Amino acid sequence: MLTKPTLILDEKKCKKNIHDMFLKAQESNIDFRPHFKTHQSLEIGGWFKELGVNKITVSSLDMATYFSKEWDDITVAFPTNILEIDTINELASRINLNLLIESQESIQFLHECLTSKVNFFIKIDVGYHRTGINPLNSDLIGGILQISNNCDKIDFKGFLGHAGHTYQCRNKNDIITIHEESVQIMTQLKSKYIAKHPDFIISLGDTPSCSVAKSFEDIDEIRPGNFVFYDLTQNLIGSNTIEQIAVAMACPIVAIHEGREEIVIYGGGVHFSKDRLDDPKYGTIYGKIVKQNEDTTWGDLIPDMYVKSLSQEHGIISVPKQLIKNYKVGDLLFILPVHSCMTADLIKQYLTTEGNKI
Amino acid sequence: MLTKPTLILDEKKCKKNIHDMFLKAQESNIDFRPHFKTHQSLEIGGWFKELGVNKITVSSLDMATYFSKEWDDITVAFPTNILEIDTINELASRINLNLLIESQESIQFLHECLTSKVNFFIKIDVGYHRTGINPLNSDLIGGILQISNNCDKIDFKGFLGHAGHTYQCRNKNDIITIHEESVQIMTQLKSKYIAKHPDFIISLGDTPSCSVAKSFEDIDEIRPGNFVFYDLTQNLIGSNTIEQIAVAMACPIVAIHEGREEIVIYGGGVHFSKDRLDDPKYGTIYGKIVKQNEDTTWGDLIPDMYVKSLSQEHGIISVPKQLIKNYKVGDLLFILPVHSCMTADLIKQYLTTEGNKI
To answer: How high is the ipTM of this complex?
Structure first.
């Protein structure tokens, strides 16, 4: 029996999301290196293994250490934190470790301090402007390659980009435009450097682009992560339908305020995260409510029911007047999260619709 | 050596914050029942015990269970989650447990299912409109008291309010106005019900009111929590000076983008939380940078350096052109959080300025 905020994972939906993305990569004949920061679970990782996936992406050396129990080819898609050189050396002694470099200082540090071999990607800014090198900055790219050429412990693996600005899109055409621009930036780099470095690859792969693009002929690898669960943000962007969202939070109702047309749930910022969404109809929201089925699965959205605010432990649900009488204290509400990566990171445990704890 | 995002606790500042609030309560001759949801640590709880504090507030039954190892008088300042009746009964068999009630359904449920005695507060909405009963709703208040009168396992402890709308204030006068309104609401309730229930108390205590009010003559108990650390939000409200903030996150620099006047740190939403602040000068921010001293303590704010955005693991720092050359990859930045409760909840561990791990 569910008594506290619980993250429910619809195993069928999740496996279908994984399978669909796997097929898409396979049909384009490119590598599929899924990002595991969303689920952060060895068990869910196993569902990828069953399909033959053998390389992954993570966003911290801590996550790489966790997954290295079962995976031996891991890209840490985060600018190398040189302060963690001991962890880098430990991992590099055991697995095929791929790091991200965007400065000469970082690669020079690795050159001096590595005790085992690593591969590295040069992180390219494809337009998101969060991290990465301007693709036209040949001096910096050349400088980095120069240092790696002189170091037998650092192999150049390729160029890696993340088109995170697709998260600002609200329709598929805009996503495709950004994706095509990113591909063009990366293929131009490939043409420029391939003669000297014949084996390198180009890697892209935000969830919106990977969900919407039909194929990936010109790139070598995709790294989407969020697609495993999807969420309301991805739905607003245009990446997925509501039906594809594979996680929901089940939260107990602790108070009902008919006059204010509000329900108070046990479920707050420490469960959902404070990530928010600017909904075209409701303004700032933190989740939407779905119909609960007889088992722990769920159906459609309940119109006009949404999480309007979150405190540390409380959530406030806006409920239409005509619906509020259907609920009582002690009922559960099933809520689709705004950002499934952050919610999963906070809750750290899933209850699957098959009744398993992960 | 610090290699990853680390929450640093300035032990001296924290103990001074605790001592100052303790003295204020003592001078007003009222009970001090600090809220422990901010620090969530038995060890920091010990610093209160040293002063003679013997009762506390928490915001979930899980936290009550954790603190019940060392505390035997705990108020769960959250509408009772009747689904956790087993935990309630277990705790009530061991400690003095105080619950919050705001509906007849909840107290009726307790009446039928309690196996040990609990006390309860009626939660009053003093104007925040998140939870609580309208103080003029005598029917509902009377109905709840009626049920408790007929149940030997439920003792009426008093009326409890939380003036969370002080968090919208931006100066001390506005805070005092809200505080005085809350006190007036509660004292009117006291006058109305004291004849029939001679022993009950009134409990208030958001951090802004408790920090700014000079004394608390007309109430019986305060329950502030955030004051133990304070943060940038409380500073903006007017609760504390920057010097009083007792926690800072130390985050490694992983990339520097001079052209964009930005530094990338290892430190994101999973470390700080996505809580944000509308700064009058910089717009939406997620933290501000302070000068690091030779040891792990810190000094003043560095003007115009702030966290402008957060992803899951990345933070982007806006840095003035003339300062950015002072930094290099591998340096640490010390950052004051927007909301210390959420940051502490995420990090779950402190490194004190005395070198202890908590």
So the answer is: 0.93
DSSP A111: H
Q: Do A330 and B129 touch (CB under 8 A)?
A: no
- Give me the pLDDT at residue B215, please: 84
Q: Minimal Cα distance from A276: which residue of B?
A: B274
Token digits of residue A75: 């890209």
Per-residue pLDDT, averaged over A63-87, amounts to 98
Q: What percent of chain B has pLDDT over 90?
A: 96
Q: Using one digit for the tens of pLDDT, what is the confidence trace for B26-54?
A: 999 999 999 999 999 999 999 999 999 99
For chain B, residues classed under CATH 2.40.37.20 are 242-352
Asked if B92 and B116 touch (Cβ cutoff 8 Å), the reply is: yes
Q: Min CA distance, B150 vs chain A (Å)? A: 22
Name the closest residue on chain B to residue A102, using Cα atoms: B255
CA nearest to B6, candidates A165, A81, A344, A209: A81
Cβ distance B62 to A4 less than 8 Å, yes or no, reads: yes
Cα gap A262→B170, rounded to integer Å: 27
Report pLDDT for A116: 97
Contact B313 A78 (CB under 8 A): yes
Distance from CA of B29 to the nearest CA of A (A): 30
Query: So what's the pLDDT on residue A1?
Result: 86
pLDDT in tens, B172-215: 999 999 999 999 999 999 999 999 999 999 999 899 999 999 98
Q: What digits encode the pLDDT tens for the residues B264-281?
A: 999 999 999 999 999 999
Q: Closest approach of chain A CAs to the CA of B81, in angstroms?
A: 5
Alpha carbons A276 and B256: distance in angstroms, whole number: 28
pLDDT at B84: 98
CA distances to A24, A127, A168, A190 from A184, rounded to whole Å, are 20, 12, 20, 10
Residue A192, number of CB atoms within 10 A of its CB? 12
- Token code pair at residue A353: 């619709």
**What's the burial of B282, exposed, middle or buried (CB within 10 Å: 0-12/13-18/19+)?**
middle
DSSP category for residue A35? B
Average pLDDT over residues A282-311: 96
List, in sequence order, every residue forming a beta bridge with B285; answer none if it has no partner.
B277
Residues of chain B neighbouring A100 (CB-CB closer than 8 A): none
Say if pTM beats, i.e. exceeds, 0.90: yes
* Inter-chain CB proximity B256 and A103 less than 8 Å: yes
**Which whole number is the average pLDDT over A288-302?**
95
Q: Which CATH number fits domain B35-224: 3.30.420.340, 3.20.20.10, 3.30.420.150, 3.30.720.120?
A: 3.20.20.10
- For chain A, give the number of residues: 358
Q: Do the beta carbons of residue B249 and residue B63 sit within 8 Å?
A: no
Distance CA A268, CA A274 (A): 8
Q: What is the pLDDT of residue A215?
A: 84
Task: Answer whether B130 sits within 8 Å of A264, measured CB to CB.
Answer: yes
| Nearest beta carbon to residue B329 from set A37, A82, A313 | A82
Residues 6+ apart with CB under 8 A from B228: B14, B17, B18, B34, B38, B39, B44, B246
Interface contacts A/B by beta carbons within 8 Å: 138
CB distance A215 to A28 below 8 Å:
yes
Class in CATH terms, B242-352: mainly beta
Q: Answer whether residue B319 shows pLDDT above 90.
A: yes
